[in-house]
Predict the 3D structure of the following.
Amino acid sequence: MGFLNQIKESFLEFLFPQGLACPACGDELAEGLLCPNCQSGIAPIGKPCTRCGRNMLGGGGYCSGCKGRIPHFDGCLSACEYDGAAKALLGRLKNGHRYAAEAIAALMLDALKGSAFEFDVVTCVPITPRVKRLRGYNQSLLLAQIIAQSLGKELDGESLIKARDTAFQKDLPASQRQSNIGGAFKLAKRGAFEGRRVLLVDDVMTTGSTLSECAKTLKKGGAQKVFCLTFASVGESVKLD
Ligand SMILES: [Zn+2]
Ligand SMILES: [Zn+2]
């Protein structure tokens, strides 16, 4: 191995000390990407809503959130429910543990295998420059990077931008969520998604309105299809209002 490659390897190991600790609970990790406890604590979506993919309380059709709306995306899929180990994993990913992205992206890729989504380019829900300065990175971009690279697809993590800060959707009553997020996203490069089928990646779906608003912006810019993939989604059993 050349000297530069050695430096690169040790730098990567410093950034992603995988193989040492479970990225969800911090326990020692003998093998795999998650410890057995956390692996079994990730709850797959048993009864997905046919519009937004969240886990439904009842059977068949749409969740309560989707009954009165048609989102701008063409499909939405989550790897698991936002609960237990999934919540812990995402908490760590947002708080400086970048290496958690690998285990999360692996679970997202697994979920994607069973879907009918066809796309040419991968993008992600953007954050504002202010949030990027605070957090240091966009966790959804980390996930989109790994997913695009694993699938050999193009990544465009720059053309869709967030033009203004918004309140956390989950902290707002349903009546204010649309005005909070409406018009928050823009395209930095006009024709970037023209005629393209897009996979839009995010870490967690709460109500689906952020994803829908991003999809609206992408479609305004000429995107042919927008499919959403998130690691986790908040199930219908969780009351947000
Ligand atoms: Zn664990
Ligand atoms: Zn739904």
About this structure: The first strand starts at residue 75 and ends at 81.
